[in-house]
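Schema walkthrough. Field components (list of strings):
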Amino acid sequence: MSKYDPIVYKDGKRYFYRFSAHQRIQHVVLFSSVLILALTGFPLRHADQAWAKPLYNFMGGTEYAPMVHRAAGTVLLALFVYHTIYWMVKFYQNHIVKLQQQNQLTVGNFIREFFSQEMIPNKKDLVDIIHLWKYLFYFTNRPPRHEKMSWREKFDYFAPYWGIPILGPAGVALWWRDELSHVMPGFVLNAAYIMHTDEALLAVLFLFFVHWYNVHYAPEKFPAAKVWLTGYLTENEMIHEHYADYVKVMIAAGLEDEIKPQHFAGERYEW
Amino acid sequence: MQIAIYNKTVTFLLISLFALTALMAETAIANELNCLMCHKHRGLSRIDENGEFRLFYINSELFNSGPHRRNRCQDCHSDIDRIPHKPAKKVSCTQQCHIAEPSGNKKFSHKNVAETLASSVHNKYDKDGKLKPHSDDYPVCKDCHDQPLYRPVSVFKGVAKHGVSERSISRCKSCHTSGNFAEDFYEHVTTRLHKTRFSKEIISVCAKCHADPALRKRHKLDDVVTSYKETFHGKMVELGSEKTPDCIDCHVVEGENNHLIEAKTVPSSSVHKNNVANTCRASDCHKNASDQLASFQTHVTYDREKYPMQFYMLIGFKALMAIVLYFFLTLIFFELLRRLFPRFAFFKDNKPHHKNTNTRSQSSTDNGG
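Field assembly_structure (string):
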């Protein structure tokens, strides 16, 4: 189904396929709207701070920044809906059709297939988390060997998936407060206000510290990972972060003899 | 006896002064009795009987741009009849002055404003005419009106600034050429146009008392200034919005005298529970809202008893934030530490890199999704 080769060669180096152009564009839309939302939201959240007014004025001031914020919020909600449909279509195409062809579409199989999707957390993730802590406290010299999606990437993925259902409806309620007051009491807006501002703080702090550590600040990534642009991982990145998947892909490509050993933390590689 | 004679003298002098000034009303200037001969000196001050420092310097520039510049000193300080004079009494804003009010040609007084204030929540007397506890805390005219807010503002090409700009009144002056009429009239009108006043200044006027912890404790008041500043309204005002409400917009019934701020227990109050919805809909703010919007809580203090929903939601979000961030930040910290000794371990795992691992048996995962 994919028009992308799992391994491509450029200048004699191996690159491993990760994200399609479609997915990369979704990511660009996601981070652009989130950054605009943060830049137009946080000056308001911290209106009493010295930096708030200049930044808010830069983003359009009290007249236009709210419009920018609402437009970006609309885009983000639309993306959320779009991505959910995208994901369901993929699930149907790659899992349900297969079951239908084999005439095995039962509730049990459906649930099993659902949890076999690459972004759904599973038992291997729990094992990897425990393994990671063993590794961090020097109880083993071998870092965890992740599949295509490591548990951290799954957490990164589901962060917006839990954040948007909290932030989005709350934002819509605060936006259409007059109209919605005909169907709900005003104190719902008190709850929406806390949900919107506090979940936004969590989302932004997670994004700036944890996600940006994963893809920007980490010594081997600094200044930035390129996979969101190219869609391909370098061989070293693949070995470092997805060793189990690396081995699998290499074997599938008939390159079993060229599999390189796993990395250890702190070693220097050319990325 | 002596006092009585003195009072009679004063009364006589006052009456004659009234008569005189009525004749001279049009040409009157503030410094008629040459008060500025002494009061122009910046150091003119003393320590009064209460040990407080009192400054008696009059900045004539400020005075001449103020709302009372057409009054003479003795219009308000009517107990002063000679120079040098004894310590003067406090000025009462309700006394009649010598400005004739043009619509009725009556002598002007702020008495009606004082009456409105007396029927508001800020009256220092209770219903039975007794002084309320801590009556000194209740505001009198000057507690609010000595604020930058009450200085004239001019708006020209959308920019508001203090003072009257020549550009703004140039059109008035093309017809109204005599004396300072155009300036006076323009100033009179613009200082009363509500939204030429900055909302932040109105909040600072109310905050003068309502943000004072000792005063709040004496009168059992919530910290309404802080809770207001945490609302969307307060934050937009902080960022310079002129469209979001300040204290007066919600606490005075639309179209009512601004001095009539009433307690929420009074049925005619804008914040009485039967009127809140109308107050929200006033001035086209939430004009499409239903009555249900009124249950929105504006002055939330996150007090456990008063606002349990907000209290527990806040704890919930703080806990969630702490768990997520502490987990990942701890992880990152140890990960960076692990890089110091990458190959060291208490127990070595010398399994081959891919053979004998069970990666091949786990190959049921897909390439989609």
